[in-house]
Amino acid sequence: MEKCGKTKRLYRVIFVLIVGIGLLIHMKDQNLAGFVNSISYFTILSNIMCFCVLLYSAVKRNAHASKRFNLVYGGALLSITLTFFVYSFVLANSDFTMRAMENVTFDNGDILVHYLVPAIMWVDFLWIMPHRIFLKEYITKWLIIPVIYFIITMIKAYGYNYFSISEEFKRYPYDFLNIEVNGVPYLISYVGLFTLLCIGIGIGICVLDFVRGMIYTKKVCANIKQT
């Protein structure tokens, strides 16, 4: 049992290193504008969340014993899953990239933060995290993360325009958030879609957490009967 725990901790250390490399690829060699633009992406912020929860859980034993940690962990899992879905179905077939390129090509950095890190978080959730750690009320609490991101993004864009900040600083990290170009109805439709998606992801996480707990309980009961 102790050996199994050490193995899982080792994997978490590896996970932390991979997530850290993905962030480093996007953050290194940036000027001030590039750095600010980078951290304005929901992708980068969700990757930072994943890095923090994985690092904390790798360093601190029984981190899951804290309801606060479980709430934050679930929020990171939801956020990185949302990143995966938005990139896969909205951005991947467009000319989107988080790094400046004259011609948009296959970007290993984008693949890392949009696909590999979500996969890592789901492996960690399904294999390493304990069972039955999420409460149903977390589903609505997790919505706070994208809501705060949206509000800050809109305020930032308005502030950039109001104070005539250099065009080097991107007003909107994603084109679908550009209310000046797309209009209010378009933006509202996207916000509504993402809200439903977040709720759906949250429900899925909680259901899987419950099912994992049921399976674990059945295994324990079966082992008790055999002994």
What's the structural blueprint in terms of helices and strands?
Elements: H1 2-27, H2 32-39, H3 42-59, H4 67-91, H5 108-128, H6 138-141, H7 144-162, H8 179-182, H9 184-226
Explain this structure to me?
This protein has 227 residues and is mainly α. It contains nine helices and no strands.
Secondary-structure element string: HHHHHHHHH
Per DSSP E runs of 2 or more residues, the count of β-strands stands at: 0
Distance between the termini: 18 Å
Overall SS class: mainly alpha
Shape: globular
Give structural attributes.
227 residues; 9 helices; globular
Short description:
With about 230 residues, the chain is an all-alpha fold. Helix content is about 75%, strand content about 0%.
